[in-house]
Design brief:
The protein is an alpha+beta fold and 258 residues long. The chain has two domains: 2-104, Pseudouridine synthase I, catalytic domain, N-terminal subdomain (Alpha-Beta Plaits), CATH 3.30.70.580; 107-239, Alpha-Beta Plaits (2-Layer Sandwich). 21% of the residues lie in helices and 28% in strands. It has helices at 27-39, 72-82, 137-144, 195-207, 215-222, and strands at 2-9, 46-47, 56-65, 87-95, 107-115, 129-130, 149-152, 167-178, 181-188, 237-243. The radius of gyration is 19 Å and the shape is globular. It starts with a strand and ends in a 15-residue tail after the last strand.
Length: 258
């Protein structure tokens, strides 16, 4: 059988999602180890989107194949028993053989969270990036609208990005303030390596008033990573949701807790 599952995790203690060489602890390692204990057999998983070191997820989606018979409830409860406290399976759901966590996905959504006050919050420091200087979220939002649509995002991807094409389509980008928090919600068909953090790096320059909103478009058209801003810290980034065709009938249970 094939199962899909939603995984929620705090990425602070991990070297990203993807399994690496021995001795490097990743989220994938922990999930596979827990599932394998429930199955009493080796289990490997595929994910919707690999997150970097220190990046979190509320709506990561995985799939795995197994000959072991377990009810979805038992997979979820058993796996959570063996997982560390900073990783949880939210649901497990049987899927058809043609489902693939990565290749079946239509879109991915991320949120970048900023603690924007004079003194950093002890409650937010693990999953927000602290920015001391007051940000102009209206200017940041205006700048983000220049990135909407299908474009060559060479300027906004890591120099070592291995994607075959820099073309991506952003369908939603919103920057807004909730008290002392500044948030960016962004959705695209897919993202390049460091793309969201590099977009935020540019928007921060605009939020501080160092650049006008139009600069985001100038950077886009330059198609040159060196013309953009710094890469924003991973702490404030979280994968919030992955969208799939409705015929897969996946549960839609995503938590938006801070």
């Amino acid at each position: 059988m094939k199962f899909a599952a939603q995984v929620e995790y705090i990425g602070t203690q991990y070297h990203g999602w993807q399994r690496q060489q021995a001795g490097v602890v990743t989220v994938q390692d922990k999930v596979e180890q827990a599932l394998s204990k429930v199955a009493n057999a080796p289990i490997t998983v595929k994910c919707a989107g690999r997150t970097d070191t220190g990046v979190h997820a509320l709506g990561q989606v995985i799939h795995f194949d197994t000959d072991v018979v377990r009810k979805p409830h038992n997979w979820r409860m058993g796996c959570n028993f063996f997982l560390p406290d900073d990783i949880r399976l939210i649901w497990v759901h049987p899927v058809e053989d043609d489902f693939h966590a990565r290749f079946s996905a239509l879109e991915r959504s991320y949120q970048y969270c900023i603690d924007n006050r004079a003194v950093s919050s002890v409650l937010l420091m693990q999953n927000h990036t602290w920015i001391y200087g007051k940000l102009d979220e209206v200017a940041m939002h205006a700048a983000g609208q220049y990135l909407m649509g299908k474009h060559d995002f060479t300027s906004y991807r890591a120099i070592k990005c291995q994607a075959h094409t820099p073309i991506r389509e952003i369908t939603h980008l919103s920057v807004y303030r909730e008290g002392d928090r500044v948030l960016m919600d962004i959705t695209a068909n897919a993202f390049l390596h460091h793309m969201v953090r590099n977009i935020m790096g540019v928007l921060l320059e605009i939020g501080w008033g160092k650049k006008p909103p139009e600069w985001a478009e100038q950077v886009l058209h330059a198609r040159d990573r060196t013309q953009a801003g710094v890469t924003a810290e991973p702490t404030g980034l979280r994968l919030t949701k992955v969208g799939y065709p409705s015929h897969f009938n996946l549960p839609n249970e995503v938590s938006y807790s801070t």
